[in-house]
């Protein structure tokens, strides 16, 4: 699709690009470790359907944790708020995304929110479908609609690689299975979850996906209502309180827009009523967020007064 | 001051008042335990200086944790962001407000955010002043300006009673003193902090205080810049991510406006660009928030689409 | 085998039997939930090969956690101390036997000791054998030697039932697999472990097993060296510091002999240089120990000054 | 007093002395930081009143945590087991000696055992006396009796220095005061506790003190019953399960005798029915135990088969 190169955006990217030298590639997934650490690109999709971009914006990357907010939207549409929040909490946490401690110390043993791994696994477990394949297909189709692209698929090599080494996620799942938060086969759940994390798109598609939330669930491209307004609002709220791992509080202070990051280096950011932003920069900070991606959003927020606060 | 009784607001109060039967008065402070559990009142102060209210809105109550966001504003004005956030973090937490665990398990041993007790104590410790009395006087004067009322003072009996039993807060302080987060005399800090928590106002004054944040730091009554815009924004962000104890996430989902509660049953809520809200309802839910106050804000947010998300 | 009924022992049993009314059967394993809650029996096997008993001492029960000390002995014989203690620690813990928290908060992520579930799973994982069947067969043969009985086997129904519901143990295993403490298939490990826990014997056989430790590894019945002296000593030490779940400290104070309990209600107790004791009483206290079994050992220790301290 | 230099003991000391190079002096107390890191000496006081020693055994050092087991003995004599164990638990813990986490996460909020700081503070708080001075005088007199020396006193400089910086211990105290485990003035308690930790003796006196436990409470020198047999036994049990900080489990495995260490580098060790051992070696391992002192006890235990297991 067409997305015009923008000089001003490129200038800001040039200003923050040196941050990549302080970051690290995620090394536990070979496909991620092979990315170019200096890569940084961004696309902005406005609600009036114009699009600006800078960098190699058609480079595809896997969604990883960005997918958590999309599966949450689908599951809320599948079951409604009440059911979903019986299985997963709404509270941010100061713990790392992959921590298991709170599952033991909290009573009842419910994941604190849908953006940490435990919560996201519980969410994926709730996707409607007669079997794991239907669950995944429904999610993939939903994401195609959000990205307004039929060609979206998942990276089978990344999915398989993550499936083969998802020991910690299996540990979280079995702990939740003990406490009846997770139902059915853990192996099947891990399969759907690792495929979900391996869904690929490029930054323009990510910006379009973000724009749906910016437009409260009505797709600005297709004019279709893809997500009910209430659920779009709810997802934006979670992005603010827990979207950037355990740096969400700092991000809310310094940037102040709903956003969700993934360890691939992608960031989906939402400027309500204005635009969706898709960023890719695989060099990560110590919390697992794209280090230059956050720098870029700080500049954009300061320059254009984007904070919702 | 004048604040017109409003029938519509009274109707909503009537609708949620029965929630008070499910709540409990804070019993560990005698002055709080003596409140009328069924009390519920609210004032709304609009940026155009009109004011509507319902219930016994001139009943005064102590600020308790509501004061945390006011001392934070003062300290940010005293020292700037960088210095302050060397001593206290920006991250929400799933732990209770009085928890000490994270001070030991996190490294470095810094309170997670300024809205939990540990963080609020570290903030109060940073108020400028040659001694504890000057520290407190400066804070009190700042709060008088916010509430636009010279008559504001603190409840000496509540302050003394809290000072005499603040064992857990002393424990938090000494732990932080061990790690050089807190400087000087812990007893002096506890004195300033318990006085701060015991500052009294009624719901109209609280609504006016809230309106300053709604107006980005410019006082709508006096037209004076009381808080720099950036700091007002920062305080609103903390109110969203951590303002309602460990129910902040749920409150963001269900209400979606910056707010800060206290165990006295007060809630300061901010509707950006529109109004400040002051609520008093001393019956608390199990997280320490005014149970009917939250119900009232949920109704107001749903009826008038107040969520910022 | 022959084990003489003893009136004095029966009298003590009668004195403590009423404790069973305060205990509860383990309800998460059907076979355990079907036991007679009032059951209490004991056998004492002296190093001079005499044996006294009271109660229905030929009633068989599964070893459950008692097996942990036997697999530890085997694994120490298989690999030596150094290798084994690279994978599992030596420190008692105040946490429950099935806790996962310390695996995350401790660094490196090593189970604290071989008597908690995480540690016992790591131990079973180290049993030598070309596959899971050889691992289990080697353990079963070792236990036959200890109990001096060829007829010992495992309860296939209990094993299958535990295998089907061992979610928490799977969670512990996957967490340890993430940290390279556990090698190979978790399902195979869980199979060997649940079979190990389901090995059955009656209290006379348990007393004989205990007597091997009392005699420093030389079997008093067969006069064969079944366990090297150093390893027998080491196992007794672990029994004292961590043998009775997170009531080990209290048991050391009140009884003061090496012992290991299981949630089936069995207790293996060792009086060094004197005798082995086997007890069965399925009513458990809140820590998971046979409530009347502990009462019985307290009486025996007080009456005959058995404490090693 | 007379204690014969022993060549054999000196040889073993020479063998392990190089361990001191791997250790570190406690640096948070100036008086401890000024010790000679290579110092290592030991005295053994046999129940037949003979004494052997090696090294500079008349060098005095402060007891620090060694005092915890002596105050425990006194408090058990003051109040009996039942009362004492309502205020402090009996369970070993895998947490460091100064950890506060378990006080919050355990319910009820009772220190796990009397050998961690929280528990020891609760114990000192129970020493009988009309005021802090009488409490301390009673403890000092009791320790004089144990060491069989009237000249024993405390180091006022160390006591003052510890009092001035005991932030973490104050934090523990106030946490326990919140939960009614500690009564009265925290400052007074900290004064008695820091004086207690600063009581000085040399290794011969320490060996004599240990010998009282080896002789089950009957002083081998004076033939007076200083501690009831039951309480002496109880103290030995705690030394085994929790005497060497969170290296107690490993020490039980590798040495296997009741012992209590302090960060001054002292170790009191008890060989039941045989002798008391007093060691001083201020270079500490990372758990806070005398690194060469432990090495020495490992050698002694192996050479003379001292383990009680």
UniProtKB/TrEMBL annotation, chains A, B, C, D:
Q: What class of enzyme is it?
A: hydrolase
Summarize where substrate binds, as residue positions. Answer: 65, 117, 162, 169, 193, 245, 263
Keywords attached to this Swiss-Prot or TrEMBL record, sorted alphabetically, are:
Acetylation, Hydrolase
InterPro entries xrefs: Beta-lactam/transpept-like, Glutaminase
**MF terms (GO), sorted A to Z:** glutaminase activity
Instruction: Report the catalytic activity.
Output: L-glutamine + H2O = L-glutamate + NH4(+)
Enzyme nomenclature, EC number: 3.5.1.2
The family this protein is said to belong to: Belongs to the glutaminase family.
The record's subunit annotation is: Homotetramer.
Specify the protein name: Glutaminase
Q: Which organism is it from?
A: Bacillus carboniphilus
